[in-house]
Amino acid sequence: MALSYNTIFGKALHFPGAISAPEDLIAAAETYEWSAAEGELKIQRSAFYTEDATLIGEIAAVMKAYAEAVGAPAPMSDEDLANLSSMDIEVSKFPVNSEFGNHKDSDTSEEETPGVVSLVLILNDNHGGGEFGFVDVDGEVSVSAGDALAFPSYLERYTTAVEDSVKYYATINFTLDV
Question: What pTM value is reported for the model?
Answer without folding.
Answer: 0.91
